[in-house]
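User: Second chain of the day. Same drill as before.
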Amino acid sequence: MHARVAEVFRDEYARVVSSVLRIVRDIDTAEELVQEAFAQALDHWPTSGMPERPGAWLLTTARRRALDQLRRVRRAGARAGALEYETGLGARDEIPDVRDPDAIPDDRLRLIFTCCHPALADDSRVALTLRLVGGLSTAEIARAFLAPEPTIAQRLVRAKRTIRERRLPYDVPEGAELSSRRPAVLAVVYLVFNEGYAAHTGEALVRDDLCHEAIRLGRMLADLMPDEAEVLGLLALMELQASRTAARIDAEGGLVLLAEQDRSRWDRALIAAGFAHLEQAGTLDGAGPYRLQAAIAACHARAASWEATDWARIVALYADLAEVAPSAVVELNRAVAIGLAEGPAAGLAALDRVDARALRGYHLLPAARADFLRRLERWAEAATEYRRALELVDNPREREFLASRLAACEAHD
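Assistant: Same format as last time:
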């Protein structure tokens, strides 16, 4: 029963917290009330059995507690602001009906936009989103990012304090503000995914827990914003990339390059979901960065082999991506694609045009240069670049791979 309640907790936490937060307007208070509702479930369900709709039970219980608290506040004559808001809900004369939780508006979008408000620091946005939207505990977030638990706790405290002191609005922005804020929401989800897909810290190359959590958040966003093409593009991108996870590591946990992966190990269900979401997002006319990246990932997913990959199409898509989201990393990826489409000499020439100053701490630039030099059998120059890459890389699995390539170049020199 405890395991089942924990599963319900994870699935329903965001919906229940966001609904309670709409009433009490304070994150800490909302969390306390929701925790009380889950504690009540643990007391009752082992003997009475889990309800047919556990989420509805929890939502009703938590909202009743919140409304009871509002009544106590009103009787005490304490918070005029709370009373004014309660009036706006129609609660002064008639308490909102909580018997049918399906009739209660879904407030998760409000919660997501609050967690990802630009006034919050990036690391605080991630922590708060995983806590309130993902339902992860402080300890789980700390384990996910291999950070000390007190550090994560402090980020959460800091984020909640900023929301409270700056009175950040608990709402979904409209018009131009919505367009300007949406990228911050998507960036938080993709940051979580990328940390899982190519972990910067720890021994593992891939963190499945973070990938799964990011995709779960992406699916929630797609449910809440089904007409937003970039939301669907992000979800498709994550699903298509995650489909290759099992093939990216060997039996010892080492890195397996895309060219050498066993494509029969790719997750066909995730690929199908990614294709469906990319198609649902519409044509690429006017596409943003996530749809374009998803289209690139789709090129890999469609190719029966490395040799069959449509590299010319990928080069063109990276050119489009450079137009809408210019960055040195995009240019680096485009240069690599050019090298694979036109040969290593062309790739080296394209790499020479990349802004090396912007990527001076990025190990994949010298690694890419080293790979093209290796393919041209310029062993000494390749070894020099591999050494540069080794000085910059953090993940031990990637270090092992680069070290093996360096050893091979030194053996030829």
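Confidence is low (pLDDT under 50) at residues 85-103.

User: Great, on to the next one.
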